[in-house]
Amino acid sequence: MAFENEERVVLVDHPMVQHKLAILRDKTTPSKQFRELVRELAMFETFEVTRDLPLEEVFVETPVAEAKCKIVKGRKMAIVPILRAGLGMVEGVLDLVPAACVGHLGMERDEQTHRPREYYAKMPKDIADRDVLIVDPMLATGGSSLAAIEYLRECGVKSLKLMVLVAAPEGIRAVLDADPDVTVYTCAIDDGLNDAAYIVPGLGDAGDRIFGTK
Ligand SMILES: O=P(O)(O)OC[C@H]1O[C@H](OP(=O)(O)OP(=O)(O)O)[C@H](O)[C@@H]1O
Ligand SMILES: O=c1cc[nH]c(=O)[nH]1
Ligand SMILES: [Mg+2]
């Protein structure tokens, strides 16, 4: 990795993650399997995202004796998928963090300008007090993620992480440069972008592959 602020980039490259990502990238993988893989990868990645959760000590009576244990300290978390493709990751995060609530942010890239257009937003009322995890499989130019980060900062969110499956270096740089606190989690950092601002080699259009719209 060669980024300024690279301490804010976490590459989740566990062998099982790399294996599943290889199948995800394959253009012959059908939508059903693609959806399952996006969900599974999101769950694996959430292990890393939640690594820094604070713990508290508790005592538990086992059938044999008292055990000194640790449990996760109650924190309020919100998952914010960038629609549509981010929806595919929500269940995977909820598999690990079932108490999280979900805010939705609709964002669509213009095919000519590659700029995002926001078309929907519905957040939990107390979003400013929650640890927020933005999810989207693809971080290409960074425009959509940046718009989501700006929106959430304006809502008063202080604790913010971005979790993607595949990132272009351009998108990572854009996000790190624009926000001084956000951390980016990704399963892969690809070579770059093509003329249509698609990630190369990437996996194509994640939304279309999840929902079978092409
Ligand atoms: O980093 P960027 O250059 O902004 O590109 C990435 C965005 O593009 C895709 O969404 P898309 O606009 O295709 O919408 P969709 O999820 O409805 O397919 C993807 O899911 C990201 O949100
Ligand atoms: O490669 C890309 C870029 C943007 N959006 C996608 O779904 N894929
Ligand atoms: Mg799309």
From TrEMBL:
<dbReference type="GO" id="GO:0044206">
    <property type="term" value="P:UMP salvage"/>
</dbReference>
<dbReference type="InterPro" id="IPR050054">
    <property type="entry name" value="UPRTase/APRTase"/>
</dbReference>
<dbReference type="GO" id="GO:0006223">
    <property type="term" value="P:uracil salvage"/>
</dbReference>
<dbReference type="Pfam" id="PF14681">
    <property type="entry name" value="UPRTase"/>
</dbReference>
<protein>
    <recommendedName>
        <fullName>Uracil phosphoribosyltransferase</fullName>
        <ecNumber>2.4.2.9</ecNumber>
    </recommendedName>
</protein>
<feature type="binding site">
    <location>
        <begin position="204"/>
        <end position="206"/>
    </location>
    <ligand>
        <name>uracil</name>
    </ligand>
</feature>
<dbReference type="GO" id="GO:0000287">
    <property type="term" value="F:magnesium ion binding"/>
</dbReference>
<dbReference type="InterPro" id="IPR000836">
    <property type="entry name" value="PRTase_dom"/>
</dbReference>
<keyword id="KW-0021">Allosteric enzyme</keyword>
<keyword id="KW-0808">Transferase</keyword>
<dbReference type="InterPro" id="IPR029057">
    <property type="entry name" value="PRTase-like"/>
</dbReference>
<dbReference type="GO" id="GO:0004845">
    <property type="term" value="F:uracil phosphoribosyltransferase activity"/>
</dbReference>
<feature type="domain" description="Phosphoribosyltransferase">
    <location>
        <begin position="12"/>
        <end position="213"/>
    </location>
</feature>
<keyword id="KW-0342">GTP-binding</keyword>
<comment type="similarity">
    <text>Belongs to the UPRTase family.</text>
</comment>
<dbReference type="InterPro" id="IPR005765">
    <property type="entry name" value="UPRT"/>
</dbReference>
<dbReference type="InterPro" id="IPR034332">
    <property type="entry name" value="Upp_B"/>
</dbReference>
<feature type="binding site">
    <location>
        <position position="205"/>
    </location>
    <ligand>
        <name>5-phospho-alpha-D-ribose 1-diphosphate</name>
    </ligand>
</feature>
<keyword id="KW-0328">Glycosyltransferase</keyword>
<comment type="pathway">
    <text>Pyrimidine metabolism; UMP biosynthesis via salvage pathway; UMP from uracil: step 1/1.</text>
</comment>
<feature type="binding site">
    <location>
        <position position="109"/>
    </location>
    <ligand>
        <name>5-phospho-alpha-D-ribose 1-diphosphate</name>
    </ligand>
</feature>
<keyword id="KW-0547">Nucleotide-binding</keyword>
<feature type="binding site">
    <location>
        <position position="84"/>
    </location>
    <ligand>
        <name>5-phospho-alpha-D-ribose 1-diphosphate</name>
    </ligand>
</feature>
<dbReference type="GO" id="GO:0005737">
    <property type="term" value="C:cytoplasm"/>
</dbReference>
<feature type="binding site">
    <location>
        <position position="199"/>
    </location>
    <ligand>
        <name>uracil</name>
    </ligand>
</feature>
<dbReference type="GO" id="GO:0005525">
    <property type="term" value="F:GTP binding"/>
</dbReference>
<comment type="function">
    <text>Catalyzes the conversion of uracil and 5-phospho-alpha-D-ribose 1-diphosphate (PRPP) to UMP and diphosphate.</text>
</comment>
<keyword id="KW-0460">Magnesium</keyword>
<feature type="binding site">
    <location>
        <begin position="136"/>
        <end position="144"/>
    </location>
    <ligand>
        <name>5-phospho-alpha-D-ribose 1-diphosphate</name>
    </ligand>
</feature>
